[in-house]
């Protein structure tokens, strides 16, 4: 197994630098299973959502689904990422001040990861956040 950094994942997804994208493709489609850590996934989505690439929610969902379809890619915790993807997909906008905001994928991953990391006999009483949109995800609460 190998692991890749965010820049390798982005070159693979974007195919925007001939030399680096070719190397990224060879790594991801090579002989080794490729570990995709949570932080690499979140950083990549943050970059793709940013001003330069400006992907919307449906496009980000498609990117995550594409990564699940890659035969060599393994997530740090695929079940948690899948749960976060589902929560992100179902998230609806809430009014925050004069704007409407929707929980983003990192919010959903934080909440799902916390639930996953809690092992019996402990139980998770909730994830507390000031983010009103994230509070719409089951298990998230206002402090």
UniProtKB/TrEMBL annotation:
It comes from the Bacteria. It holds the Pfam family PIN. Residues 3-60 form the PIN domain. InterPro entries: PIN-like_dom_sf, PIN_dom. PANTHER family: NUCLEIC ACID-BINDING PROTEIN, CONTAINING PIN DOMAIN-RELATED, PTHR39664. This is Twitching motility protein PilT. The lineage of its organism: Bacteria, Pseudomonadati, Pseudomonadota, Gammaproteobacteria, Oceanospirillales.
